[in-house]
Write a structure and sequence with these properties.
345 residues, alpha/beta, Rossmann fold, 7-stranded parallel β-sheet, two-stranded parallel sheet, 13 strands, binds uridine-diphosphate-N-acetylglucosamine, isomerase, NAD, NAD(P)-bd_dom
Length: 345
Amino acid sequence: METKGKILVTGGAGYIGSHAVIELFQAGYEPVIIDNFVNSQESALAGIAAILNTDVTCHRIDCTEVAALREVFQNEGNIAGVIHFAAYKAVGESVREPLKYYHNNVGSLVALLQVMAEFNVTNLVFSSSCTVYGVPDQLPVTEETPVKKANSPYGNTKQICEDILTDLANSDGSKIHTIALRYFNPIGAHPSAKIGELPLGVPNNLVPFITQTAIGIREKLTVFGTDYDTSDGSNVRDYIHVVDLAKAHVVAIDRLLAGKAKQIEMFNIGTGQGNSVLEVVKTFEKVSGQKLNYEIGPRRAGDVPKIYADVTKATQELGFKTELGLEEGLASAWQWELNLKNNKK
Ligand code: UD1
């Protein structure tokens, strides 16, 4: 079958990666997954196959291993672009085990860039994060908002990776073009409820904690502080539907393959809308019809009081705009949680 090109998706069995694989395929690309399944599950591959009615190739390797990467590039041939999702992402864990984060998040990027150069693969989309802005002085944050000292090793790995990509773009002779997407807070699941977020153990993130509480896996949600300088005192975030976020990667790949991208570009990928934790709880109750058991607790160390995206650059230069809102995100997350429960029966 003729496709628009083969796209290597590292971390393609993970939460955002699996949704991107679906959107890439449906946009006419041939996604090929690399995953080592340390923070993802084989069942994601079955979900992808069920949605697409076909299997997607998956190489079970660790992205920090140059030799293993080389073998994949060699065997696959003709790779048009790479989307690099594979990374650890738990802020608290990164404080306890910083070397694990530097090794995996920075090491995998360096190994990947090295092998891309060897095989003359020149298009890269990199998963960055709004965490690079730290506690911003102005809201909403634009791509020009200064990058502040990271408040966790996780955040620092994203800054370091952006720096590595910028240094490479400014170096002599590198042909690699990179679009770094700075994600805000991804939520929700595919409308089929066949793929979604699969946290291992107790979730760190808000939405899986909410859905697990509503279904009875957790006793109650703790809202981490209502004494912030926000409308209702709880933290404000920009929650983007994971399907919208996945589509941003297709737009970025299109731009790279069309030769329209500068050597390095950063884009905020959010909705432009801020919602508080308490608003998320209320919206969840509304769309799910479930009463959520929650309590107000103390602040969580390292939390940014308020952050949401200015999406002007993504809208104007990428032509990217989100289509789904908080309600759709939370409703789909709930369907996914219900589906997980039904499949266990
Ligand atoms: C953070 C990073 C983000 C990173 C993500 C990875 C920032 C601004 N964002 O997201 O870049 O990719 O971690 O995991 O640094 N909350 C509760 N109770 C809970 C869980 C969360 O009240 O049980 C609140 C948090 O205090 C926060 C909001 O919900 O205000 C969202 O939290 P979470 O889903 O963990 O994401 P961030 O911390 O925003």
